[in-house]
Amino acid sequence: MRILGIPVRGKAMWIVLAVIAAAVIGLVIYAKLGGEKETVEDRPQTFTQRAEPQSVEPEPEESTSAIDFAARAEEKLRQEQSGQEAGAEPEADQTSESEPESEPEPEPEPESEPEPEPESVPLPYIDSLGVPAAEDFAWIPDVQTGDLTGSFLGNDELIGKWKGEIIYDGIWELVYVTIDTSGSITIEPYQINYGDGWEDETGGEPYLFDGTFDISSVYGSGSYGSISLYTFLESYGTQYGVGTFSVHDESSADVYMVRP
Q1: Distance between CA atoms of 58 and 63, rounded to whole angstroms?
Q2: So what's the pLDDT on residue 208?
Q3: What is the DSSP string of 53-120?
Q4: pTM of the entire structure?
């Protein structure tokens, strides 16, 4: 026997026939079942047709506790919002009614310590000059003839105490001349000679002059008149000074100074 052109004999032939028969039976059953299914699905349903009950799963009901919780949360949120709106106005009123804050008082500045006063330096020869005498001025003729020479002093070398002699109209007066750092000049009488001997003037009223420095010179004026000390020089360790003293009646006197 040939099946699809293939010769089949014996047991093989029967096995093939059984397989073919099983396949045919399966096709018939599948066609029948499939046709009935299509017929049922395509057929319109009527009110008299008995529908198979369908199982409907019940929708899950919301938990009562969840509903209560949501309701309480919503109510609490509503109360908080109403409380905030109500509380905002009193806060504004409180701000407007509150008294203005007073500005803080400035802290007192720390008191600055007074600057220490500079230590006063004693003027040169203020206590070591000795008393003036007529013989201290034996060099005056050399000044008058121009024979006194030396190096000029700077302004800082003029300050201090000097022995002095004032000569005017046949009168000789021995004095102390003090020049301070501001240029002020003080003349203190010591002795005076009107031509008949020296008289003591110690303790007499001093002559005071407000003065200023110039180049190697100092000038002053006061109630007695004016004074100009215009030449200062040093020769062989001795310092000399020369000037004039003019009173208000336009009379003048020569002034000579020496130290030490």
Answers
A1: 14
A2: 96
A3: P---PPPPPPPHHHHHHHHHHHHHHHHHHHHHHHHHHHHHHHHHHSPPPPPPPPPPPPPPPPPPPPPP
A4: 0.55
